[in-house]
Amino acid sequence: MSKLFTYEQVAEHNKREDLWMIIDNKVYDITAFVDEHPGGEEVLIDEGARDATGPFEDVGHSPDAREMLVKYYLGDVDPSVSGLI
Q1: 64 lies in which domain range?
Q2: Fewer Cβ close by (within 10 Å): the C or N end of the chain?
């Protein structure tokens, strides 16, 4: 069973030095990826600390980009807690 996080917990990780985001109800710690992101750090910082599924899908990330998420995976959004941030 994966670890569960609330939207509020994800929202606490909102700085370049500590940045999480949600994509498809999965929580990722993308802190180490900020400097490597091909689209620049600004977009990650702007979309970080919340559900970034829409913007992630809108860009049309490649299968390789989706595979990269695996190493940043922390757990899932707690399904018993509703609310968007």
Answers
A1: 4-76
A2: N
Query: How far, rounded to the nearest angstrom, does the alpha carbon of residue 47 sit from its chain's CA centroid?
Result: 8
- Examine residue 82 and state whether it is found in any structural domain, yes or no: no
Does residue 30 belong to any structural domain of this protein?
Answer: yes
Q: Looking at the whole model, is its pTM more than 0.85?
A: yes
Q: Which two tokens stand for residue 50?
A: 């919340």
Task: Please answer whether residues 21 and 30 qualify as being in contact, where contact means their C-beta atoms are separated by less than 8 angstroms.
Answer: yes
pLDDT digits (tens, 9 = 90+) for 21-36: 999 999 999 999 999 9
User: Mapping DSSP to helix (H, G, I), strand (E, B) and coil, where does residue 31 land?
Assistant: helix
What residues have CB less than 8 Å from 79, skipping those under 6 apart? 4, 25
